[in-house]
Amino acid sequence: MTRIKKKTKIILFSIIAIIVIGLAVLPTLVKNYAINNSKTLLGRKIDIGSLKYNYFTSTVRVYDFKMFEQNDTDDFIVLDTFLLNLNPLKLIKDKVEIDQVYFSHLTVNTTMKDSTFNFDDLVAFHNSTDTIQKEDSPPLKFSISDIALKHANFFFNDQNVNKETHVEDFNFEIPYIGWDQEEKSNADLKFNLKNGGYFKSSLNVDPSSGEFDAHFTIRELQLKPFYEYVAEHAEINSLSGSVNSEILITGNTNEASKAIVSGKIDVNNFEMTDKANKKFLGAKHIESKIKAIDYYNSSYTFDTFKINNSYTFFQLDSTSNNFFKIFKLDSPETTETAVKDTLASNEKALYYAVNQLVVENSVLDYTDNLTGEPFNYHLSDIEINSKAITSTSEWIDIYSTMLLNNRGTLKANLGLNPNDYYNSTLDISIENFLLPDLNIYTNYYMGHSILQGDMFYTSKSKIVDGQIESENKLLVKNASLENTKGGLYNLPLKFAFFLLTDKHGDIHLDVPVRGNLNDPDINIGKIVWQTFKNVIGKTVAAPVNFLVGLVGGDPKDLEEIDFSYTDSIPSEKNYKQLDKLLELEQKKPELKIDLTYFVDNKLQGEALAKAKLGQAFFQETREDYEKQDKDFEAFVLAKAETDSLSLDDAINKLVQQPEKDSLVVAYKNSLIQSTETYIKEQAAFSKTEIKEAKKEDPENTGTFPKFKISYGMTAED
After folding, report:
1. In terms of DSSP bridges, do strands 198-205 and 408-417 run parallel, antiparallel, or are they unpaired?
2. At a CB cut-off of 8 Å and minimum separation 6, what does 661 contact?
3. pLDDT for residue 139 is more than 70
4. Distances from the Cα of 3 to the Cαs of 7, 14, 16, 624, in angstroms?
5. Cα–Cα distance between 555 and 540 in angstroms, integer?
6. For residues 601 and 664, is the Cβ–Cβ distance under 8 A?
7. Listed range (293-302, 465-474, 564-573) with the worst mean pLDDT
8. Region for 677 from its dihedrals, namely left if φ exceeds 0, alpha if ψ lies in -120 to 50, beta otherwise
């Protein structure tokens, strides 16, 4: 009996020893089996440093886990530590209960090339169809507590742009998830950003109703790592800045697409440079307060959108501008895509609202090369303010002020219907604008340089159903110009300014603009320029209309001085006209006045011949020949000793052509000389010149003697 008991103990201890040894080596066997059959089980080769199981606490520990790439050499997933703490007794009640799931120092390497990823084979492997039909089973009862991922690192290598993104020190915690959970689950996540800053989130989900809220915090997210992605769509050399945000998303997991987004986004020290490494867009601070973004209903509402200390460099050429070129907006493909996207987006009614738009202390540098010479202009202290900009507004007012080239000031008020830009208003006022800033344009288009001058400008423009009516008033102070050669339109701007200048040295100019914006061929710039040309042209073509305001009287008195054929000296009326001309010279010292003598020599010769015979008639009869027609005719015929000739033929017989020509010259010389003498006696300073028109000039035909008055400037070339 003793021997039997002894043998039984030996067998029992042996069995126990075998079980203990089996349990001890089981994790190793499982590890080796998993490694050797990993491709069948998981679709990839794996390696495990060690696998341990605590039978008393039901805790599984895995150390130094690796899953390789398809080439079986490079690391795809590396995990330093994995811990799983089970509660096996709950299995008796058909419930899986896990007290702890812990991952430490997980590293995942993801690669993208074209549209494929380095894990596509794993997705295909695990999505393969199981041919065995499974019977429906009751829902799994489970509870998982204390889920944590610590110090993880994720690498994303986008070979399309040759860019690797690193998310480091990624941390994730979920206190509890259960199949019959009634309270909200909370999931916290945090990871550091490689170039500074961090990302943190907190997710709360009500498992019974599906209601959730998610809070996201981003601190100092650097924009530089995103350069390669932006460079795919823009010709830029650099991208920099940082983003801070607080975002709240609320919704229901059953209708996740109806979630509402709110919060705040701040961008600091934003800057983009072009391929020449020139900064073309930037801002010290951009603040956006999101009231509600409802993507499902296409509704976007912002409480505030504020831009502070922004900078824009805008370069215009004859075909495009730097923004279109940088963002590839002037290519046909881009335009066609944009049109299609716009049509697609218009399928849903879009609602947008910005309760307050603010731009503060901003700068715009403008340049163009339209004239063949760079034109640079600096706009600073730009302030823009508007309230209640919405897609449903019937009217929006936007106010703006800015400094022009560090001196002039501009104030503007734009009013418009956001749904119909063909109904709007624009009021502008400009003070102390430096006219020399425009020299490149005035030289190119008009052949003038503006040496000095300040401009004050007001404009009131209204567009009603596409019909523009714009009233523009310019006040120019102390303007002086210099002639240069040429000019595309060669406008006599200097003379026009001279004529328009009043006694205070100011120029007042009204430029009304009219046009139909519904006409696809309309060009507002051309309309304004053509209107300006017309104003200048009319001013120069009719200078009398502006000069008469200085001396008063009838404008016709400043156009020409008329005489009769028999006048050898000016009349009293003529002297008064000359006095007004001298007064003009005194008030406008740079005014140049020319008197050009016109007359029909033939008609004057005939008139003087008749007048000579009229003097003989008077001496004999003491009668005026112009009042005694019949007596005078009889007198002439008697002198001609004929009664068969007409009066004119009789006069021609008595006064031959050489004598007529001599009389014409004598009267002309007397009239011109007496006029010159009067001018010199009355105003020694006068630069008025008297000259004769060419004999072949058509204006002589049928003309009484006259001085035609023309105006110019003594300083003009």
Report:
1. unpaired
2. 601, 605
3. no
4. 6, 16, 20, 187
5. 15
6. yes
7. 465-474
8. alpha
114-132 mean pLDDT: 76
Residue 485: band (very low, low, confident or very high) from pLDDT cuts 50, 70, 90: low
What band does 326 get if pLDDT is binned at 50, 70 and 90?
very high
- Ranking 79-83, 93-97, 106-110, 420-424 by mean pLDDT, the lowest is 93-97
646, 660 Cβ separation under 8 angstroms: no
Strand 163-178 with 185-193, pairing? antiparallel
The structure tokens listed for 573 are 């009326």
Residue 701 is classified by DSSP as: T
Q: For residue 76, what are the CA distances in angstroms to 46, 63, 81, 101, 464?
A: 10, 16, 16, 21, 65
Region 211-235: what's the mean pLDDT? 90
User: Given strand 591-598, what is the order of strands in its sheet?
Assistant: 560-562, 706-713, 591-598, 689-692
Helix%, strand%, coil% for the chain, nearest 5 = 30, 45, 25
- Element containing residue 228 per DSSP (H, E): helix 227-231
272: helix, strand or coil: strand
CB 246 within 8 A of CB 200: no
DSSP character for 296? Answer: T
Mean pLDDT score across all residues of the chain: 83
| CA-based R_g, the chain, Å | 49
How far is Cα 589 from Cα 685, in angstroms, rounded to an integer? Answer: 9
The token duo for 322 is 């730097």
Residue 367 has pLDDT above 60, yes or no: yes
3-class secondary-structure state, position 235: coil
Q: Quote the pLDDT of residue 364.
A: 94
Taking CA atoms, 309 is separated from 362, 364, 459, in Å, by 5, 11, 28
Residue 343's pLDDT is what? 44
- Please name the residues in contact with 221: beta carbons below 8 A apart, sequence gap of 6 or more: 193, 197, 199, 242, 243, 244, 245
Q: How far is CA 96 from CA 90, 142, 185, 299, in A?
A: 6, 5, 18, 44
Yes or no: say if 471 and 514 are a contact pair by the CB < 8 Å rule: no
pLDDT for residue 19: 67
Q: Are 219 and 266 in contact (CB under 8 A)?
A: no
| Residue 537 backbone dihedrals phi, psi, to 5 degrees | -60, -45
DSSP state of 385: E
Helix pair angle (572-587, 657-682), 10° resolution: 40
**What's the token pair of residue 389?**
């900009």
| 354 strand-pairing partners | 302, 389
pLDDT: is 393 or 57 the higher one? 393
- Mean pLDDT value of segment 573-592: 91
Locate the domains of the chain by residue range: 393-541, 552-713
d(CA 610, CA 632): 10
Of the ranges 62-76, 520-534, 602-616, 654-668, which one carries the lowest mean pLDDT score?
520-534
